[in-house]
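User: Fold this; C-alpha cells only.

Assistant: Input:
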Amino acid sequence: MSTLSASKFILRMKTDQDFAHYIASADSKEKRHNLIQSNGYHFSQDEFNKIFDEHNDEALINSMRGNALRGRECVCCKL
C-alpha cells in the first residue's frame, strides 16, 4: 500500500468522470474496494486521508463536486 497510489487514485477520480462513476456505482464498501484494487490502486484509508489532507485546497474541493469524492467522505474509500 502506498500514499503514491492514493495520490494517483485521487487525481484519476477528479479528472476521469467515467472512472469516478464506475467506482461510485459499486453497491458496497467491499465491492468498491475490490474495484479500486482491480484497477491497480492499493492504499489504506489512513494513506488516503493523509494525501487528501495534503492536497485539500479550494481547487481540489471544487473539482470534486459532483463526482464520487466528497471531502473525506469518499464513497469509494471506506475500507
